[in-house]
Amino acid sequence: METYTQLYNLLNKSLSELNDSFDKHPKELYDPQKYILSLGGKRIRPLLTLIGADLFNCDPGKAIHAAHAVELFHNFSLIHDDIMDNAPLRRGNATVHEKWNTNIAILSGDAMLVKAYQELNKCEACFLPQLLQLFNQTAIEVCEGQQLDMNFETLDEVAIEDYVRMIGLKTAVLLGCSLQMGSIIAGADDQSQQHIYNFGKEIGVAFQLKDDILDVYGNSEKVGKQTGGDIISNKKTFLLLKSLELANKEQRHELNFWLTKIDFDKNEKISSVKNIFDQLNIETISEKEMSKHYSSALANLRSIDCNHQKKNQLFSFAESLIEREF
Amino acid sequence: METYTQLYNLLNKSLSELNDSFDKHPKELYDPQKYILSLGGKRIRPLLTLIGADLFNCDPGKAIHAAHAVELFHNFSLIHDDIMDNAPLRRGNATVHEKWNTNIAILSGDAMLVKAYQELNKCEACFLPQLLQLFNQTAIEVCEGQQLDMNFETLDEVAIEDYVRMIGLKTAVLLGCSLQMGSIIAGADDQSQQHIYNFGKEIGVAFQLKDDILDVYGNSEKVGKQTGGDIISNKKTFLLLKSLELANKEQRHELNFWLTKIDFDKNEKISSVKNIFDQLNIETISEKEMSKHYSSALANLRSIDCNHQKKNQLFSFAESLIEREF
Fold this sequence. Notes:
Distance between the termini of chain A: 30 Å
Helix content of chain A: over 70%
Structural class of chain A: mainly alpha
Order of helices and strands of chain A: HHHHEEHHHHHHHHHHHH
Oligomer: homodimer
Radius of gyration of chain A: 21 Å
Low-confidence stretches of chain A: none
Mean pLDDT of chain A: 95
Strand content of chain A: under 5%
């Protein structure tokens, strides 16, 4: 059995080799790909692919190219999402379209998506149809999720179930896919594959809900930044959407007042909106929704017939993702 | 043996079914894909895939999903290129980013690229690694070609060999790829595959050079539009780059005069630049360069050991692409 630290080491070594493969011309096409990969990030998705292989007793090295594929796909989507969201910063550094320009960000993103398929094609040929099927389906769903997210921005009201569906598509399916790809390469049976996919997807939804909660109720010292950023930017989080659903006439009026106010004192807006959240018991309701998905994730993991020690390691890893305070 | 009309009928029927698969939600993601495909175009690339299969005695129906993949890829690249080129029109209709917006054009293009891989994954599994390898390599080269083309826009001088290399990457490799994909599915041997690829690529380069020539020396009545559009927009065509290479000091001075002039009479600019082209014998030089690639294409086709009737049909098709007057 491999410890997760060993898996991380394997991953970081191979990602650094992957990074060297971008030393090519034309530089305007390859430098942005090298740049975004070098910004780091937690590398959770490719790690999950190696974990998915290891869990079913497969040498994780066999899944390394599939791991590259999910990391490349994730970074492609960051480059293009950052253009669409007009985001200036990514992991504390200039986004690709800011550092270069939008055209370069579009094209280097495209090339990075193709590169993901090149890595996929290095996997053992017998697994290729199944890997491609899953990877393609997931990639389409991520696009659908991003489109729904953009659509929501211009809607006055978004139903809670639509929001949960959106985060499922935009962020969670890729976690399920990452794990399942490892399990495919390990030759796991269909039922185990489905369970590990569901585990990853549900953890992904729970993780995103936790993000929403921490932005308002996180420990700002541990987060290392002021909480309430989502409130200031009117981001349609689970907390805001649920409040709009539960608010009485007066509370809804006050929420709309803050949502439409152009000039405001940031702290005043945060504390006023948070006050309504508190009146409506939103923290508890959100925690409950998160727990529902977390429990579903754990139930799926429990159903998998595999080495207990490995399973426990994955339980602990899931806990560390969800029980975080920042 | 199938006539090309039969192949076209097969293709159009299946592309219309493919088009129906875009009746999905979210509509903002799928409508643009349906729209660009419905604008038509000559469908040369997917036709070449069917031709590539038929040439080696394979039922062209077996290559239909590979044909879809190249057509989807081509249309994805049109959507994204139109954003980068800031183009208002495509085939006489509004471009996707004009009809919707840039974000929708980026994302629907991404989804269309993924859809191409979904079609590829419907091909017989035993051919998948080879098809993917070729398709990925081609897709990367098309991105490189587009990047080089964008780089050239801001350069004062571009060497002729760099220009020919750029059009090779940006437009010609996809023709070679389209044909070779058909030949892979037909189980053609490596050497035949290489010849049919080279044939397609060289025809592609010759076709693009013909485009450059026709813009200046085409029969404007047959083209149905005023010639000289490339001269007006200072497009770095083979003709312009070759003139800059061959011009004496005086001619270079006059070319630069017209290249930098902001306000000008269109007809005066066209006739003045064309006059220098004529002095330098550019039409003949360009025809010669085109013929070089056309001859190389034909030599490759000649080398292929296959049914003579089919081969002759492809010779005629190549001739129709290159000997056109518009």
